[in-house]
Amino acid sequence: MYSVQSAPPPAAARPPPKRPPKRKSRVVDDSDSDASAEFDGDSSEDEDAYDVDERQKYEQNLALGWFNKCDANSMVDSINCTPEQASTIIGLRPFETVDDVYERLGDKSAKGVSPRLFTNCVELMAGYMEVDDVLAKCEAIGAELDQAMRTWQTSSDQGIDDSFGAVNLSEVKRDGAVNDENYLQEQPSNLAEGITLKDYQLLGVSWLHLLYRKQISCILADEMGLGKTAQVISFLAYLKLQGKRRGPHLIIVPSSVLENWSRELQHFCPSLNVEVYYGSQAERREIRMDLRERSDYDVMLTTYDMATAGDDHKFLRKCGFDVCVYDEGHMLKNRRSQKYEKLMKISARWRLLLTGTPLQNNLQELISLLSFILPEYFTAAEDALAAIFKVKPGAGTSPLSQQRVIRAKRMMRPFVLRRRKDKVLLGLTKKTERVEYCDMTDAQQELYQDALQRTKSALVEAEDVPAKGAKKGATSRDTSNVLMDLRKAANHPLLFRRLFTEKRIAALAKDYVREPEHAEENLTHLKEDFAINTDAELSLLARSWKSTQKHVLPVEEWMNSGKIQALKRVIEEARKNNDRILVFSQFTSMLDILCVCLEHMGVPYVGFTGQTNVGDRQHIVDHFTNDPSIPVFLLSTRAGGLGINLVAANWVVLFDQDFNPQNDKQATDRCYRIGQTKPVTVIKMISKGTIDEDILALADRKLELAEQVSGERKGDAEGNDEMIESEIKGRIASSLLSQVRDRAAKPEE
């Protein structure tokens, strides 16, 4: 175990020499002036050069001290070197001066290292100093807000959740003891009759109003299912009630929840005049012309796609919004994306991000979110912040990473409000999770073993890439393809082409062209096209035409999967209590198979995927909610995991696992939320002895780390979706390669 001292010291522990001035080159100038942004107009060039030189010396001396003390693990984690390079550097210690470091690292006898590694360390120290400057500003804001909220807290309300790094308010004082115009003891009077906010929601509105009054943009990060939508609408209703409107408000949402937001705005506060900016190009053009001539609307509601598209984006930039709300705000996690850059250009006096996902799953993404809502505090030091919070997979336990998390939590605390379901919804129904281990059928076993054999060559080739100098990208794709084949075999054999032989495809094509609509088709090209389809796709095509229906696969083939048999049992179990089920899959092709299987079982169902028309999605949800005779809702994990409310169901079946377990958790929370009156059962389908088990084990580890960073227990977790998927694939590939080699080493029976 390494000591904390091997990480860069926190600000309080740094040596006492005079703090050098900030780098002048970090000043951001958005003006069109030709004057250089690197110099302060009130200082001479010589003074500025002196200031920069002094700061560089200070940074170099900090780096020298750290270079002499840090352990190998921290060095690898921080300056982008290999363990071998770290060992070489440690062997060269002690270094007497900065020049001594550069000289020794540049010596030809010091193989494998270069002076650039020390330069990396100097840049790291410079970054930490800039981070501490930003941190000081954040803590000053936090102290001001703490003082304002001091009288809000009750004996049962801990106020600040330092374990997560966020404010946590849940209980309202109604005894008149709080004399604060930002504090709401009663909900806004213009909410619709019958609407009653819960205490933590009313406090959320108060918190939003406090930060709005102080013009400090923020993030509402309540756990999924706690009614962030209701709090936002109530906040906007309160602003309307006060009559201090400084322009219309803008709400930007994913396309899948546009209609739900429109309905909720009408449901919670009918007096809000809402304009939905959505439709065809011609319809949007008419809306723009109409809105340019009037300003009597309170809220404009649109989607991310609309807000970033050509003429729509130009129009929104000129509207002069007061409040801008970004639902599913974690979609803005990439500060280099076109979406991020375009939305930054839509001006608003105050910004509010809504997200229910852990904000510290990746620290760089957190900095992107904070920079988006508070550019005046974070943009100037954005590059330094991004560099400091950059971390490689698996580097999350070092002292340096612990320092990162400590700083990140302290930075985010003033700007984030987060409450957890288990803390504020004491009456929330019980949630039970279980793993359903499924025995594969003979057909699945055969396909899985074939895929394992293909995996052997692909993984061995991937392992040989560094030695042979092969193209890494192509090999990575090959590895991903064979891993995908393993996932498909664990799900269902009809995801391959096994039953439709070349001879059967020829017969299908011949019958297909008998249909008048296809009489002109080229038979050779048709057979080639059919050959790249799966058994399921070809059977579904065959049943679409009278001439080809004899090629439809029998019911036994559709039911020929261990997971399908397990799903049948689960549906029967749930229906005994009149319970209803959400079934999620990563693959739309698997959902197509499930549709046929449910038809054969005689089970009514509805469903949608990412390809379902946005305007139809809410109607499908409503149909399911209002018709209890429909027991099953089929959804793709990512399309169905965003923003929709499906409390009419209380069973969730994850037919296969997402590489990022947070996506599965989001899917589960579609029914485990406010309004759920029944116990919730979550079932994960896992084919025994397959890649499913590897994905489950590694995803569970990621969930545990995410819980650590969000306050369940002390710890640290860093990694974005791509990093998570890359790490899991890498570990699985390594595990599978080991399995394949073990099988190859055994003599054939």
Automatic annotation (TrEMBL):
Catalytic activity, EC: 3.6.4.12
Pfam families referenced in this protein's UniProt entry, alphabetically: Helicase_C, SNF2-rel_dom
InterPro entries xref list: Helicase_ATP-bd, Helicase_C-like, P-loop_NTPase, SNF2-like_sf, SNF2/RAD54-like_C, SNF2_N
CDD domains associated with the record: DEXHc_SMARCAD1, SF2_C_SNF
GO molecular function terms noted in the UniProt entry: ATP binding; ATP-dependent chromatin remodeler activity; DNA binding; DNA helicase activity; hydrolase activity
Chief place where the protein resides: nucleus
Enzyme class per UniProt: hydrolase
Residue ranges, compositional bias (Basic residues): 16-25
GO CC terms, sorted: chromosome; nucleus
Residue ranges annotated for the Helicase ATP-binding domain, each copy included: 209-376
Keyword field: ATP-binding, Chromatin regulator, DNA-binding, Helicase, Hydrolase, Nucleotide-binding, Nucleus
Keyword Zinc: no
Region (Disordered): 1-52
Similarity comment text for this entry: Belongs to the SNF2/RAD54 helicase family.
Protein name, entry field: DNA helicase
